[in-house]
Amino acid sequence: MRELVSMALATFGCAGHAAAQRADQNAARAAADAFGVSYANESVGLYDEEDVRGFSPIDAGNVRIEGLYIDQQADLSYRIVDSSIIRVGLTAIDYPFPAPTGIADFRMPDAPKALVLSPRLNAGTFGDASIEFDLRAPVVGEASSAAGGFGLYRDNERFGGTPKSFSAGVSFRWRPALGTEIIPFWSLDKIWSEEALPTYFTSGAFVPPRVRDRRRYTGQDWATNTSRGSNIGMIARTKLGDWSLAGGLFRSIYAVSRDRTTLWLDVDAAGTGTETVYAAPPSRYASTSGEVRVSRTFTEGPRLHRFHASVRARDQARLYGDAEAVELSRRNIATRLPVAEPSFAFVDRTPDDVRQMTAGIAYEGRWKGRGSLNIGLQKTDYSKHVRPPGRDGIVSRDRPWLFNLMASLDMASGLSAYAGVTRGLEESEVAPDIAVNRNAAPPALRTRQFDAGMRAALGKLQAAVGVFDVRKPYFNLDGANVYRRLGQVRHRGIEGSLSGDVTTFASLVAGAVLLDPRVTGALVDEGTIGKRPVGTSRSHIVLALDVHPQEWKGSSFDLQVTRHGGSFADQANAIRLPSRPTIALGGRYRFRLADRDVIARVQVTNLFNTYRWIADSSEGLTYSSGRYVGFSLATDLES
Predict the structure, then answer these.
(1) What Cα–Cα distance (Å) separates residue 182 from each residue in 113, 242, 249, 585?
(2) According to the per-residue pLDDT averaged within each range, which of 96-110, 128-142, 353-367 is highest?
């Protein structure tokens, strides 16, 4: 690999500078708190785009790019985005129109002052390998710039799957006048030969026996998936005096041309189950969405005032079909028995359309040394039309008023308190693979959140602690495996964060969330289902430490300890999964190669090869990844 990198560096022919940009991205050192920050190749914190306080911002439809609303259907590629941050609690107090489940806010690369080429080679002990190449360059002086790249991956999975994928994207920044910026972008992600992660459903109140060889694929060669996701859009913003205007228009498409899912059903205590493959027809999920926001900002002595008026809209079209289930042999779940792929005769697919428009006004006020205020009021018009083949269409409408009220109080130098309440209209997860109505999406849900807390500056450390209460309708499988509303779910908890430089050569990110998830409703009162939601961990603890003495000249050592609390694996709350901590150790070594700075990165995840069962919300069980060692070589070539 050293020779390959050396040849690549010589080919690029750029002057050597200290590595920066992508090669030097370090989530632990960049994080302002423990609530979640992600880069292309690493992340740190309690939360991410898929999990905030036990819920998913992406499933809820709470995604922003450069602060503007996008109805994301395909993942936003890190070829066009630089990082993401979770806006929840303290991090949402100065953010217009927050959401109860939290917001995943993606940021695009800054305009470079010089040409920067960023090649990266990755490999791991699962046999995976990839190459990434990113470029950032000014185009015409400082008036315009471009960023983009590609990645080619052989992503060998923890269960033995061997998918391949390709990622590409490009974005431009054009500044035709002072204070004006236009950012068009495009990205594409393709995945093929992607084996389905085996999921296990037991026949009683127990978990399957441990799968000794976690890296052995036990499914069928033909049980693979092929998908394609793309995002295209444009962001424009300008500022004139106290006024600013920002807008974005986006098109997001996710298409699955081959859809196969492997489930092991009726698994007994000895580990014998029935391998079942669900095959579904091609599906497509597309949305055109965007936002226009007008803002005015002015100061009044020590007070800053900012007013917003916003209009957001989306036009979403989904097309999906019922899956055919094929029962194969009944055998031990650790064994493999290949068979020929049967033929499938898919029925007509179901169109599912959503149209929504939301208008809102908001006010943000900050009084230096006193506190801040964030108020928002929105009116949304939501309609959903599902047209099952051979049946009458189903129309859902909702036109609620939504609001948020958040305030903070500066109690002393470096010490503040905050509290807030938010009401929203959010999406829910779609019906799982095992559901009779697989892939069906419930109508948008009315949700609400209350949170409060304190934050303090402790020298170079930032500390925060808060409480929260999030409530929304609870959807899951009933006794007939129909995905529908079963009651109300409440996630109440305490979260804390401590981050910053503990010494001149060590950075710390420490966080914990203690969660009390609870389901209420008639089915709970009758004893049909338990009071705890399936698959929701009761706690999550993260400790990340990055040590980087000056004498190491850019090299560093890092440690991350993660502990997920226990959860229940079934609706009756009879199967309790224990908590298991995992430890990751890593290091970065900066060295010179071909007269250029290169960063070698090695990280061992799940150092002690911890094994645990993980339950999803539909009672499906998967096992955790085994010990993995990842390697990478990266550099930034700047001219």
Answers:
(1) 17, 20, 12, 42
(2) 353-367
| pLDDT at 175 (0 to 100) | 94
Cα–Cα distance measured from residue 546 to residue 463, given in angstroms and rounded to the nearest whole number: 18
Does residue 19 surpass a pLDDT of 50?
A: no
16, pLDDT greater than 60? no
Q: How far apart are CA 391 and CA 347, in angstroms?
A: 13
Q: What is the CA radius of gyration of the chain?
A: 25
Round to whole Å and give the CA distance between 154 and 161: 10
**Is 624 in contact with 611 (CB distance < 8 Å)?**
yes
CA dihedral 216, 218, 221, 227 (to 10 degrees): -80
Longest dimension (CA), the chain: 76
254: enclosing H helix or E strand: strand 243-267
Rounded CA gap, 496 and 468, in Å? Answer: 11
Provide the mean pLDDT of the chain: 92
Six token digits for residue 431: 């019906």
CA distance 533 to 522: 15
> And the tokens for 36?
């979640």
- Residues 281-299 have a mean pLDDT of 97
Residue 52 carries which DSSP code?
B
Question: Tens of pLDDT along 333-358?
Answer: 999 999 999 999 998 999 999 999 99
In DSSP notation, 200-239 reads: EEESSSSPPPP-S-TT---S-TT-EEEEEEEEEEEEEEEE
Distances (CA, A) of 392 to 141, 315, 317: 59, 22, 18
**What DSSP letter does each residue of 143-166 carry, written as one string?**
TEEEEEEEEEEE---TTS---EEE
**CA-to-CA dists, residue 166 to 122, 247, 314, angstroms:** 14, 30, 28
Strand partners, 485: 475
91: left (phi over 0), alpha (psi -120 to 50) or beta: alpha
What is the identity of the amino acid at 533? P
Average pLDDT over residues 298-314: 97
Task: Give the helix/strand (H/E) hosting 525.
Answer: helix 522-525
Using CA atoms, how far apart are residues 54 and 639, in angstroms rounded to an integer? 45
Task: From 157, 198, 188, 181, select the one nearest 235 (Cα to Cα).
Answer: 181
Contact in structure between 316 and 290 (CB atoms under 8 Å)? no
Rounded to the nearest 5°, which phi and psi values hold at 70? -135, 135
Cα–Cα separations (whole angstroms), residue 308 to 181, 295, 515: 19, 4, 34
C-alpha–C-alpha distance, residues 523 and 517, integer Å: 16
Measured CA to CA, the distance from residue 451 to residue 350 in angstroms comes to 39
Of the candidates 130, 131, 25, the residue with the CA atom closest to the CA atom of residue 83: 25
CA gap 585, 384 in Å, rounded? 48
Is 541:571 a contact under the CB 8 Å cutoff?
Answer: no
Which has the higher per-residue pLDDT, 574 or 433?
Answer: 574
Under 8 Å between Cβ of 158 and 625: yes
**Lowest-confidence region among 434-438, 568-572, 623-627:** 434-438
Neighbours of 161 (CB within 10 A): 21
- pTM recorded for the entire structure: 0.92
Nearest-angstrom CA–CA distance, 16 and 182? 31
